[in-house]
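Input sequence (120 aa), recorded before submission:
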Amino acid sequence: EAQFVESGGGLVQAGGSLRLSCAASGFSPDMYTIGWFRQAPGKEREGVSCFGSAGGSTYYADSVKGRFTISSDNSKNTVLAHLQMNDLKPEDTAVYYCAPCPVGADFSSWGQGTQVTVSS
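Predicted structure, token format:
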């Protein structure tokens, strides 16, 4: 079973930057898609960005285009995914998770996530 461990969150002022990292084990490093999702208080979890290892394709939600950059690499049986977040806004405040992308409705292997808080 795949496991996802997120890190890199924190408290930052609006306009600041953070770099999130995710280590995914039990996840095939040969060909994969992996993405970042976030859940703000009182809101549903939403997709932020996805990366496909075949050709390095990327997807960004409109709300983060031009500000966030996803990247990924792998080592042996561990897939690493990173999310560089620049020009952060208070509305980016959420718990950020990584998972396969797209993620199925029955996906249950969510990690603990990493909290990002952006102060105005």
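Checked by second reader. The first strand starts at residue 3 and ends at 7.
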